[in-house]
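Q: Okay, next protein. This is snoRNP protein GAR1 from Halorubrum vacuolatum. I've checked the sequence twice, so it should be correct. Can you predict the 3D structure?
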Amino acid sequence: MQRVGTVVRTAQGLAIARIGRDEDPPPIGRGVVDESLSSVGRVVDVFGPVEQPYVAVTPNDGTSLAALMGTKLYAR
């Protein structure tokens, strides 16, 4: 599994995770899970500065955006 980053905010129905400096962004469309390996959603965009970009994740139905704040996310 590849670490995606930590959710730092929500915007327009998406969870926004900040990628660490030494981590590569996951490909768009990749599934995302939390630390307990529960499916959270899919990567829909990678944006921001090249050195430390952000990843936009569209959550699965029933996944609370508020509950994702501060959560570490991983790509399958």
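A: Here is a summary of the prediction. The chain is about 5% helix and 50% strand. The mean pLDDT is 93.
Q: Noted. On to the next one.
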